[in-house]
Amino acid sequence: MKGRNDARLTGQAYSQLKAAIFEGRLPPGTPLSRRRLAEELGMSAVPVGDAILRLESEGLIESRPRAGTRVRIATPQEIHGNYVLREALETHSARLFAENADGRARERLLKAAERLDAANLALARGKCSQFRRARVERIHVAFHMLIAAASGVPALIDAIERSRVLLFNRLFTGSLAASHLPERWHRDLAECLVSASPEAAAEAMRTHVRYRQQEVIARFKELVEARSGPARMVRGPQRRTLEENGGAGALLD
Question: Are residues 61 and 91 in the same domain?
Answer without folding.
Answer: no
